[in-house]
Amino acid sequence: MISEIKTIYHYCSTDAFLKILLSNSIFLTHCRMLNDGKEDRMFLNSFEKVDLVSEYKDEELEIAKKIIDGYRKKVDFPYVACFSAQDDILSQWIAYGDDGRGVCIGFDLSKIPFIDLLNEQHGDKPKVIIDEVGYSDDNDELIRKIFNASNIIYKKEGNAGKAIAYGLSGMERLSIFTKSTSFSYEDEVRMVYYPCYRHLLRKFNQEEFEGDVNYELDFLSSATRIKSYFKYKLPLDTISSITLGPKNQIDFTQLMILLSQTAPRVRIENNIKYSKISYNDF
After folding, report:
1. What is the pLDDT of residue 211?
2. What are the φ/ψ torsions at residue 274 (nearest 5 degrees)?
3. Where are the domains of the chain?
């Protein structure tokens, strides 16, 4: 459970490490730009395993169909920052820590205001969702539970639109926190942000927007790709530890100067360590 996790860890290159510390921010990337091609699309294959016609009738059948249709047609994908519950995993160093040359940053979860998947609020005025990723390749039972919960809403209130919105919202939230079992070694925790897409399209639509806007969209280039992202400003002293990768070559004196300026908590508490993994260049 996310409530039992005290620290979440982000593996990154030395360049990304420097950007995070200098800005005291986490960068949330559009989920379709992550390395899993099925990101936020894991439920599509499972829809075929649910026999809607035999399991649901009349209005309940129509509600289920519209939830599926809404999920298939969604375009307002969330933005994500990825963490791990562990701070020294070889697979993470290889995949995200510049092949062991990077850094693993520890973040004190108690400092970050967030909502978890059970809608429990942690801290004041949360703008992001944080929870553990679930790993499964067979989600038909989960989909049935979402349909059934939507139908309960419909039976109680007689409002099909509300029932559909409830089911679709639940499916979208769970979808971004569900990955294939082939990624289970990552032991991943996610920070997820849902932007206001009307605000993002305000210039395209040539309209003024006076709603509550939390963050400004920005862009970066990565090889031949363009990625959009949001910068999430961290509360004071959120960065609580630093683990240097098994092939990291950062000069220790320069690191101490950097931490004195950007993450004094780490320096004061001496929460700096080297990876214990033996991993050489060949």
Report:
1. 61
2. -100, 145
3. 1-36+78-132+182-282, 41-76+134-176
What tens digit of pLDDT does each residue of 230-271 get? 999 999 999 999 999 999 999 999 999 999 999 999 999 999
Per run of 10 residues, the mean pLDDT along the chain (length 282 residues) is: 91 97 95 74 78 81 90 86 95 95 97 95 94 88 88 90 92 89 91 84 71 75 86 95 97 96 96 91 55
AA letter at 242: I
Helix axes of 160-176 and 140-157: crossing angle, nearest 10 degrees: 150
Instruction: Determine the Cα–Cα distance for residues 5 and 188; give it in Å rounded to an integer.
Output: 12
| DSSP annotation string for 232-246 | EEPPTT-EEEEEE-T
Q: What is the β-pairing status of strands 134-135 and 178-179?
A: parallel
Q: CA torsion sign, 161 to 163 to 167 to 170?
A: positive
Cα of first residue to Cα of last residue in the chain, in angstroms, is: 39
Q: What is the pTM of this model?
A: 0.89
Distance CA(53)–CA(82), nearest Å, equals 38
In order, the DSSP letters of 38-73 are TTT-TTHHHHTTS-HHHH--HHHHHHHHHHHHHHHH
Distance of CA 75 to the CA centre of its chain: 17
Cβ atoms 132, 116 nearer than 8 A: no
User: Phi and psi at residue 187, in whole multiples of 5°?
Assistant: 50, 55
d(CA 38, CA 176): 10
